[in-house]
Amino acid sequence: MDAVTDLPFGARLRRLREAAGLTHEELAVRAGLSRNAVGALERGLHKRPYPHTVRSLAHALGLSEEERSALLLAVPKEGSANASLVPAPATESNLPRPTTSMLGRAQELVEIRTFLQEPRLLTLTGTGGVGKTRLAVEAARDVAQLFSDGAVFVALAPLGDSGFVLPTIAQSLGLRESEDRTPRETLHAYLREKRLLLVLDNFEHVLKAAPEVAKLIEACPRLSVLVTSRAPLRVRGEQEYPVPPLALPASTIAPSVEELVGSASGRLFVERAREVSPTFELAPHNSGAVAAICWRLAGLPLALELAAAQIRFLDPEALLSRLDQALSAVGARDLPQRQRTMWATLDWSHDLLLVEERVLFRRLSVFVGGFMLEAAEAVGAEPGASGGILAEDVLGTLGRLVEQSLVTANLDEKASGLRYRMLEPVRQYALERLEESGEAEETKRRHFVHYVAFAEEADLIYGLLTGTKLTGSEGEAWMDRVEREHDNLRASLGWAKERGDLEAGLRLAGSLCWFW
Predict the structure, then answer these.
(1) Residue-wise pLDDT tens digits, 290-305
(2) Residue 86 lies in a domain
(3) Which of 326, 328, 411, 485 is at a distance of 20 to 30 A from 211, taking alpha carbons?
(4) CB–CB of 390/381 below 8 Å?
């Protein structure tokens, strides 16, 4: 194949087709295209095919990952015969910095980069746990140099109301609200001439705001928007990009170690297993079980990571046995297969918990955007027959949930402590468990009581400091604390609204008027 590396796309495609021994018609059938379309591509009449078309052709030709990437890069870029864009100077951004390596997404990154070279709306879709956010962040880092005004990441998962989308975007850009301008007007004015990449993460919760995003793109011709969502936005100009699961091992019957780690899902499982158990070794006697686990979990990154976390106390054969039990207990058969596999993985992880761990796990689902230890103690503890968790037991129980990868813990530098969080798919699963337990209303009430007390304390300190404006290090610290808990405060206000409790809602809103 080396002879085709310097050829234009059309000539390269023709050489690859001939090397594969295929006619125009045979390649067209395999790729799901018309014979005329293949001929037009080879003759250069259609100079810039879509990446998904190139991907279909590469699959039909049986190309390797390296050859696929080379074929995509041969597609001429707009404004040049076959040259890459000149990168713009890199700028600062707020993109998250992943702490683990990314595996098996080279092809997707090439395709996403191609899409984002022009101002447009690109939506990464897929089931929960497939790795949309991780891929979006990596892609944004990869193309950030193309955007002279940087790349901005906006987390939408904490929002329960689509009306908060534009204010949240403005906040992420560092824009302040103005009395004489709406959030829409503020954003349009600021972004109108910007060459910027906006990454909107977890949009499925706020799909009613999709028209606002479309209007923003229309008003700002140099703006590119990269969205992650379980469902497309369904607006004009949107390009949907389904994110596939990771590639699976070729076989579950005695695969070699090389064959297993040669697949993205197998490599991910092995790397994560070694992170929790440095003594773990992949060998011929357990490679079949690891391959079977990858297949059972459909190559979903989150499911694989949750399973690999149990290698600290289960060998692959025992893990596979427990996984089979959980998978056979899947209830909703009308859900997509991958989603059922995801829920089965979470069911299985839940089944490994002690009684008090299960109780705390489901109660922690009421926190939105994370929580501190004292909040977990106030909301998660409830002595009595239903739970029997004491406040002093919460720390140890929470630590075990962190160890089992159901809760994450990250250092909050401004708060000088750890802040805990559930990954959104895990939180949604735990919330369903809470609803099924009959404890939802009482847990949400304790959540409300805690954050009302928090807001009233902040309001009191605000009044003691100046009466008009927070000043000094203590005032700044409280401003930061309220900012971090803003999503939980909104959730508490939403609970009061759902119950029709006007007095409770006004009590909370009144305590935060200085902040808002």
Answers:
(1) 999 998 887 888 888 8
(2) no
(3) 485
(4) yes
